[in-house]
Amino acid sequence: LQSNKEDNAADPLLCIITSPPCFPPPHPPSPFRETPASSPIISATFPHPSSSSLSSTRSSRRTLSVSIATTTISSLILSFYSSALSKSAINTDFFDLPNSGGVKALDLRPGTGATPVDGDQVLSSIVVIHYYGRLAAKQGWRFDSTYDHKDGIGEPIPFVFTLGSGKVISGIEAAVRSMQVGGTRRVIIPPSQGYQNTSQEPIPPNFFDRQRLFTTIFNPTRLANGEGSTLGTLIFDIELISLRH
């Protein structure tokens, strides 16, 4: 574990792309367990206990408390250790998406539903997704998320687009094209498949986030210094919610 920590510290991008998925699980497990309602709690009252009896009872209670605390700590350590192993196990699961221009993908959760259709505008799918968008050049700065866009009752508003329309950056279209409904995929998008101009979606609705994103990607000084491959690298976690033709 120490070796993995040192390796990740040496490579900030590796830390970003191997971080846990942004989407919370439907029913996150808790390391703490309450006493089941069905488990009876038995107590008894003894009149006029002797001092030796009280001392023995207190000692038993201390021993029981220490035992429970030790068991709880051990369970937490095992839980965190298992989590670390799970994260290290996905480090090598990225693969190149065919005909994507260099987009790399990792399926965090495979889908079981339909796959989008990418044809002409009549046959193409209208795709509904949730996403977290991060910028590698800013140490994984999350510049936009559909979960931050709320409707009138506080529900997150998904992002909707037509596959093949050209309005969305190529890297997201390449990622969604081979996904199935219900799946979640993490993609590393190179600059050539990311933002080529400021009109391509998805665009952060917050003006300052939008300005920060584009002034970083299209920074003329840093581009002239040969930092283009670093500035425009994007990391998206995409969840395919639904689609229609």
TrEMBL record:
Instruction: Give all residue intervals belonging to the PPIase FKBP-type domain.
Output: 124-244
Highest taxon of the lineage: Eukaryota
Q: Provide the E.C. number(s) assigned to this enzyme.
A: 5.2.1.8
Looking at the keywords, is Transferase present? no
Protein keywords: Isomerase, Rotamase
Q: Name the SUPFAM superfamilies on file.
A: FKBP-like
Q: Which Pfam family is one of those matched by this entry?
A: FKBP_C
List the catalytic activities from the record.
[protein]-peptidylproline (omega=180) = [protein]-peptidylproline (omega=0)
Q: What are the protein's GO molecular function terms? A: peptidyl-prolyl cis-trans isomerase activity
Name the InterPro entries for this protein. FKBP17-1-like, PPIase_dom_sf, PPIase_FKBP_dom
| UniProt-recorded name of the protein | peptidylprolyl isomerase
Per the UniProt record, the source organism is Theobroma cacao
What phylogenetic lineage does the species belong to? Eukaryota, Viridiplantae, Streptophyta, Embryophyta, Tracheophyta
